[in-house]
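S.,

Sequence below, as promised.
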Amino acid sequence: MKYGNIIVFGASSGLGKAVSEHLSDNCENLYTVSRRNPNIGKWIKTDLSNSEEIVNLTEKLKGITVDGLLYLGGTRENNAFTKEYDFKNCSDNYIENVIKVNLIAPIKIVKYLLPNLEKSTNSKIILMGALSGLDNFPSTEVANSSSKFGLRGVAHFLRQTLNSLEIGITVINAGNIATPEVLDDLQNSSLDESNAIPIYDYLNIIELILNLNKTLQ
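The prediction came back faster than expected:
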C-alpha cells in the first residue's frame, strides 16, 4: 500500500532510520528530519533541541499535506541504562537536553504542523514511548523515564484537544527493539540480546497504525 506524505523525526539512526528505510518506497514523499544526513528521503537538517530550528523546519513544510508524523527521535542521559549511570552526578545539560528533545520538541512540532495534518483525510501522529514511561516501571534514568512518561500524557491530551479534527494519535511503549545501537548497549551491559524485539515487529505496528481507518483510531 502507498502512503501519502510521511515525516520521520530522528531518521539518522536507530528506529528512525529503520522505519525510514522501510517506508521510503511505500509513500508518496518521505521527509526525514535529523542532525546527520540519513541519505534517505528528503532530508531536512534539524537539531530537535533547538526551538529556532524547529520553527525553520515547519516553515519549510508550509502548505505540504502531512499524512503521517512519526516522532521517533530521542536522547538520554550520559551512561543511561548502564551500571555507570548516577543521577546525582548527571549534568544539568544532559537533563535539560533530554526533556527538550524527548518531550518539548514533539509538542511544538505537532502544534506547528497541525495545519499540515488537517489537510490530510486520514492523518496519523506516532510518538516513540518506552516501557520506562509506564506506571511503576523500575527505571532509574530520571530525565529519560520522565520524558517517556510525559509522552503518554501528550498523547492522551492531544486526543482530547484534537478530537474534532479526527487525527489519529498513538504512543508506542515498546521494550528493547533490536536496532544495532540497542544490541550494542545490551552486549556492553552483558544483557541477553535474544529478548530484544525484532525490528520487523515494530515496523508491522507502524504499518498497522498508518493503515487504520480514522473511525477506528
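The mean pLDDT is 87.

Coffee later?
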